[in-house]
Structures are given as C-alpha cells and as structure tokens.
From TrEMBL:
The chain crosses the membrane at residues 28-50, 62-80, 86-102, 109-130. InterPro entries: CAAX_protease (IPR052710), Rce1/LyrA-like_dom (IPR003675). It comes from the Bacteria. PANTHER family: CAAX AMINO TERMINAL PROTEASE FAMILY PROTEIN, SLR1288 PROTEIN. Keywords: Hydrolase, Membrane, Metalloprotease, Protease, Transmembrane, Transmembrane helix. The lineage of its organism: Bacteria, Pseudomonadati, Pseudomonadota, Gammaproteobacteria, Alteromonadales. GO terms for molecular function: endopeptidase activity; metallopeptidase activity. Pfam families: Rce1-like. GO terms for biological process: CAAX-box protein maturation; proteolysis. Residues 31-121 form the CAAX prenyl protease 2/Lysostaphin resistance protein A-like domain. Coiled coil: none annotated. It comes from Salinimonas marina. This is CPBP family intramembrane metalloprotease.
Amino acid sequence: MKAAFFDFFNIPKPEFTEILADNLSSSAVAAFFTISATCVIGPIFEEIVFRGILYKRIVQSRVGPLGAIVLPSIIFSLAHLQYSEPLIFIFIFISGCLLSWIRHITGNLWYSIALHCFWNSLVFIDIAYFD
C-alpha cells in the first residue's frame, strides 16, 4: 500500500523505512518497542495533541470547525518532517483533515485514535513485510 504509493508517484522511500526494518530484525525487544511506538503510542499521542487539545481550542475560537480541521492538520503535517517529498506532506495533510473531520462529526476522539492506530498498523505491515 505505502510501497505502492511511493512506486506510483516515483518517490524515493524515506530512510526511516530501513531503520524500521533493522529494528524489527535486531531483537524481539526492539521489535516490540518499534511496533508499540509506531502502531499505538505514537498515534494516541498525536491524536490527543492534534485532534484533542488543538482541535478543542481552535473549534471554540472565531475560526470555528473548518479552522479546527485544517489548522491542526497543517501542524500535523509539519510534525512529520522526516519525509522530504511534497507529495507525502500532501498525503499526510489530507489524512490529518480526515482524522479531524471524523473527530468533528463524531464528537469523539476515540474514533480518530482507532483509525490512526489502524492506518499506522497497515503502513507498518507494508513496510515490514512488503518492502
């Protein structure tokens, strides 16, 4: 999936994919912490910050719901500076908008957390087993 995205747009794969693969093969402990950080801890933290704290403050401001969807998504994209390709930033921005929109329409942070964990898990599986 992610590999297909990179291949389709002829984007070089980020260096972190090699680091991730090395962590998975180095030891069970390294693999456990890599999987935990990538698929659970990271997404939960990001959702609390971007769709929890930032969204809540922005939606109550004059900017309203649209700003609460777009502004945290821009910051979310910038937080992923390990990617150097513009198309990846666009994809992350759109993903951030989708997660924010889900947060907005459900009024519940758990749905965006679940989707983010699921998405990162799919990308992780793709990197780990199909690259």
